[in-house]
Amino acid sequence: MTENLLFAKEADSHVIPYVYTKLAPAKPTAVFDTYWKFAAERQSIFFKRVRDEAGPWTSDPIFRKHKFTNVYRITDRVSQYLVSKVIYNSKFSSSNAEVFFRIILFKLFNKIETWEMLLSAFGELSYASFNVQAYDKVLLKRMSSGVPIYSAAYIMASGKSYFGHEKKHTNHLFLIKKMMEEKVYHQLEECANMQRAFELLKSYPSIGDFLAYQYVVDINYSNITNFTESEFVVPGPGAKSGIRKCFADTGGLTEVEIIKLMMDRQEIEFDRLGLDFQKLGQRRLQLIDCQNIFCETDKYARIKHPTIKGIGDRQRIKQTFVPSGKTTKIFLPPKWNIDQA
Question: Where are the alpha helices (DSSP H) in 87-225?
C-alpha cells in the first residue's frame, strides 16, 4: 500500500500532491484538491440547512444551481427515511427477520412513495402477513396508472431469467420470498465481516456487485450486523469516473486502495488546504462516504474542470437544485452512539 505522500512545487508555486507507492508515483490532477473542497463546502451547506439558516447557503455558483447528495451517505433523504421510518420505527417489530424483510422490501424499489403506497394499501408491512400475489396486484395497479414504482438511482436487473415472470416487480417479490424462506437474515448474523455479507447478498438473483454493497451498508444500519464501514468498499461506476478525474495515474493502486487512501488521509488533506470540515459528531468519513464523494466530484468537475475527462463523455449535470425547505432533524443509528443534537 501507500508508504508516504510528498508534495512537488511547479514553477507557478501550485502545490500538487504525489502519492508514492512501492510500484510507481500516483499523479493527482487539479480535481484531487477539488474533491476535498467539494466535501467541505457540501457539508457546510448541509449543516447550515439543518440549523435552518436563511439561504443561499453558499457563494459557489455550481452548488447554487445543481443538486448534489450529502457528503455522509446516512444523511441523504432516502437513507434517513430508511433508518428512521423503516428500520427503527417503533410501530414495527424489531426482530431481525422483520427488520431484514422491511429493508429489502424498501431497497428493492428504493422509493419512498412506493413504500408509503404499500403502507396505505396493507396498513402494516411485515413478513408475517406478506403475500406475493396481493403485493403484486397493488404494485401493478400503481404502474398501470403511470406512476413509477422504482427509483432512478439504481438500475435493477429484472430477475426474469431466474424467476420467469414478465414484470420486474413480480420477480423481485419472489426474490424477497426466497430470501426470507432461506433465512438470509440469520446467515447475515453469522457473517464474520462485511465482505462475507456482501458475497452472500450477491449470490441472489438480480443482485450484482454495486447493489450488494449498497444493501449490506443499509442492513448494517440496523442491529442485524455490526460491521465497521472502514473495512470494505465496492466502487460504483460514478466513483470510478471520479477517481480517473482525480488521478492522471494511480501509480499501481487499485480503485479500492485509492478510496481507502482518501479515507485514511482525510484530516491531513483538509488541514493542508485550510478547510474546516464539520464531521458528524466524531465520526470520520467512512469508505462508503469517500466512494460517494468521488461520484459527486465526478459530476461537479464536469463544470469546474471540463477538460479533465473521466469514464464516458458526460458534460452536464442533470439535476438542478430546488430548495425544499428546512432539512429535517437527522436520525442516526443508535448503536453509533453519536449525540443526535
Answer: 96-109, 112-122, 132-144, 160-163, 168-181, 184-189, 194-202, 209-219
3-state DSSP call for residue 294?
Answer: helix
- Contacts of residues 265-274 at CB distance under 8 Å and 24 or more positions apart, as own/partner, are 265/5, 266/36, 266/290, 268/5, 269/17, 269/36, 270/36, 270/40, 272/15, 272/17, 273/33, 273/36, 273/37
Lowest mean pLDDT among 52-61, 113-122, 200-209, 236-245: 52-61
Domain boundaries in the chain?
A: 2-73+232-336, 89-219
| Residue 324 burial (CB count, 10 A) | 8
CB 204 within 8 A of CB 178: yes
All three cell numbers of 279, joined, read 464531521
Which pLDDT score, from 0 to 100, does residue 15 have?
53
- Using DSSP's 3-state secondary structure scheme, residue 249 falls into strand
The residue written with cell numbers 431481525 in the block is 96
And the C-alpha cell for 202?
450477491
Is residue 308 within 8 A of residue 301, CB to CB? The reply is yes
pTM for this prediction: 0.89
Q: DSSP 3-state assignment of 2?
A: strand
pLDDT per position as a tens digit, 200-231: 999 999 999 999 999 999 999 999 999 999 99
